[in-house]
Each structure stands twice: as structure tokens, then as C-alpha cells.
Amino acid sequence: MQSNYRQTGSKAYLAGIVLVAVLGGLLFGYDTAVISGADRGLQAFFQSAADFEYTDAWHGFTTSSALIGCVIGALLSGLLASRLGRKRSLFVAGILFLLSALGSYYPEFLFFEKGIATKNLLLAFNCYRILGGIGVGLASALCPMYIAEVSPASKRGTLVSWNQFAIIFGQLVVYFVNFLIIRSHMNDPAVVEWTNAVGWRIMFVSEAVPAGLFALLILLVPETPRYLALNGQDDKALKVLSNINGYEKAKEILAEIKATVVEKREKIFTYGILVVFIGCMLSVFQQIIGINAVLYFAPRIFESMGVDNNMLFTVIMGVINITFTLVAVFSVEKLGRKPLLITGSIGMAIGAVCVALSNVVAMPAFVPVAGIMIYSACFMFSWGPICWVYISEIFPNTIRSQATAIAVAFQWIFNFIVSSTFVPMYNMKLGSMGDSFGHFFAYALYGVICIGAAIFVWKIVPETKGKTLEDMTALWKNRK
Q: What is the pLDDT of residues 6-36, one digit of tens each?
């Protein structure tokens, strides 16, 4: 019997299945950031419509419509993770990414004349974006959950942080792809017309390649041992655990999992309200500190600062982001979760205040640009990856899929709120200050919220470094 299981764990096996899972994170980043390059071309295309006026309000909805799908996907993730399992739910997400990429490229499919902007075509386009958003919502909840449930406790923070690295890498890739797409026609006198007619379509369809690859590869990875054990498939769970940890350690882990599985599903507040509250507030703070307003509208922000080549600076920011995400990957198990969140919050506040003050005090152009870079870099080694680490590990086994779904839904709801309110807030005018008031107010507000986030983590959030997923049951029972 024992000979049927691997006696020593395989690092290559663990790395392989985690690598496939983080492709979902890459698609998450790719899908949410693709709009930054397609933004102006998409706006110009629908402004050519003859049957309705494509207002700023319509454009705000169109650039944020995927976030509606993200909320839906996050809410569905708990149900799908429990019913279909983590693996098959991720396959569904991959198919949705693929359909969204193809549909956003050619929203006229079957029903409309290609190249003719109409109100109904706009609605069809937004439906495809929402479809992709559902995929993002599923992936955002399920990828960290999958990685956490297959990872040894000593490596879990690092491996889940790689998912955030993949998200930022996906954003960097799409920034670079968008830059190359535009640059390919830079010498064409009709580059603007080409971008408005074709360029934005190519940006969206470029996602089809990683989406198709993810959908295929996810079929090759195993289901998580926690899900298998929760559903009475102990032999399969032991096999996966043995492949990762070795047979003897796998038996210990399986026994710990089984000890916490009193019943297949417990009520969401079985361990008290506090654990769910903390998970949701971590998600809320990750969004209301304002990072996605910067990521989604980076080209416009750099343009307002007087930067000539705003797309190039957006790519530079992407490189900085991915570099500082690696800081979290290689330090989260050494320094812990709380120190990184608190330090990052303070650093973000400093960056935001620099940008805010540059709009009311005469400063060289590099000051607000540096402030944006500092703000973004500090997010990348703190709230970016560590929030996902917490959400993937803080909940007990029997409520993880339900609680994660709720926490991630909160994240996408507040993502939508921040993204849809940023442009009106950023463009607010007040007396002689004009546009400068809105620019000052937006970043001053984000700076204050960053300080609030640091205090929340310091006072309320527990440190989870080195604890197993099964330890979460005892932790929250003791704090009820």
C-alpha cells in the first residue's frame, strides 16, 4: 500500500502545479489592465456612433464594466469551488477569459455590421467584458485558494505571493503588448485612425493566447488535497500530499485536515464574525487605498503630469511594480505578513502625499512622477501580494470557500467604486485652483486611507506566518 505513494516530496511537482495556477493570476492582471491601452481608441470608436451620444459616463461604465463581472465571479467562486472543486472551477474561468478576448475583439459577431458603432454594439461589447470579469472574479478567489491548499505551511506565503507576481507580470506584459501594437504603426500618418478602428481590437484579442493555454494546462493539475479530503476522497488526497511532501509527512497532514473536518460545510459565522470581518476589511483596504485608479488610468495620469511618452512611463512603472513584488515573494516568510503591510501602507501614504502636494506647491515634474512610483512600489511589496496571502490562509477549512468568496466580492465591489469615482474626483475643480484641486484631493484622500490601513493591521489583524491552514481553526475558536 505504502509503495503506491511517493516516499519523498517533489519540489518540481509542487512548482509545476503552482506555475499552472499562477497563470490564472497572469490572466487576472492581463484582463484588468488591457483597458489602459485600449482606452482612447475604444472611446473614439464609440464616439463615432450616430444613434446615441457616447458620453464620459458611458465611457466610465465601459472601462469599468468588467468589474461587474468580477463581483459576480467572486460571489460564484464559493459555490463553484464547493460543488465543482477548485480545479474544474479554474477551467471554467479559463474558458470565460478566452470567450471574452474573442468577443471583445469582434463584438459584432453574428448580429452587427463590423466597424459600425451603435448603442447595441456597445452593450454587446460590455457583455463580453463582463464575461471576462466573471473569469477574473473566479481566478482572483480560486488561484490563491488552490495554491494555499497544495502548499506546505513553510512555503505557503511565498507561493501565494507568486500569484501576485503573476498578476503584476500580466499587467506588465499587456502594457508592453499595447505599447508594441501602437508602436507598430507609429510612423503611419493615420496611426490614430488605425488605433481607433483596429488597434484596440488587437489589444483585446491578444489575451486569447494565454487564456487558451491556461484552460488546457489546468486540466493536467490535480485537485487540491483539502477539497478531496472534505469530500471523502482520502486516498486521492494522500497521493497528492505524498507527491508534494513525502508519504510520512502526508499522513500527518491528512490527519490534521481530517481532524478539522467536523462536517463538510459549516455556517459562515461558525468561528465568529471577527474572522470574516477581518478578511473583508483586508479586501476593502486593498482597494480604497486607490491603487487600481493608478493602474487603470496610468497613461492619463502621466500625461496630466506633463510626461511626453506616457505609455513608455507606464511600462517603466510596470517594471518597478514587478521588481517590488519580488521583495514580498522573498521576504514574506522571513518578515511576516503584518510588518510588510504596515511598512507598505506608510510608504504609500508618503508617495500619495508627495503627489498631492505637487498640485498645490510648485515642484519639479519628477516629484509627482517619483511619488506615483513610490506609491505603486510600496503597494507591490505589501497590500498587493499580502492581502491575497491572508485571504487564502486566514479562514478555517470548512468555511474557506464561502468566506473567501465574500471577501473577494467585497474587493471587487470596492474596486468598481474606486475605479468609477477616480476620474470625476481627479477632475474636480475649485475656484482658482481649477483641476489642481481634484488632483490634490484624490491623492490626499488615498494618503489618509493608507494611514488608516496601517492602524487597522497593527491593532486587529493576527500574524499567520508559519501556521498551517488547520491551525486557523484553533486560532479563531480561541478568539470567538
A: 777 788 888 899 999 999 888 888 887 787 7
Closest CA to 209 of 197, 217, 220: 217
Which amino acid is present at 97? F
Q: What grid cell was written down for 393? A: 490562509
The C-alpha atoms of residue 319 and residue 169 are separated, in whole angstroms, by: 8
Per the DSSP assignment, residues forming a β-bridge with 430 are 434
**Do 379 and 344 meet the contact criterion of CB atoms below 8 Å apart?**
yes
Q: How far apart are the first and last CA of the chain?
A: 42
SS3 of residue 430 by DSSP? strand
Residue 344 · residue 378 · CB < 8 Å: yes
Instruction: State the pTM of this model.
Output: 0.79
CB 90 within 8 A of CB 218: yes
In 3D space, the residue among 83, 99, 80 whose CA is nearest the CA of residue 139 turns out to be 80
pLDDT of residue 263: 43
Check if the beta carbon of residue 211 is closer than 8 Å to that of residue 128. no
Nearest of 240, 207, 248 to residue 95 by alpha carbon: 207
Question: Which helix (H) or strand (E) segment is 101 a member of?
Answer: helix 86-105
* Contact of 74 with 106, CB cutoff 8 Å: no
Amino acid making up residue 294: V
Q: How far apart are CA 139 and CA 276, in angstroms?
A: 20
Outline where 305-382 has alpha helix (H): 310-335, 337-358, 366-380
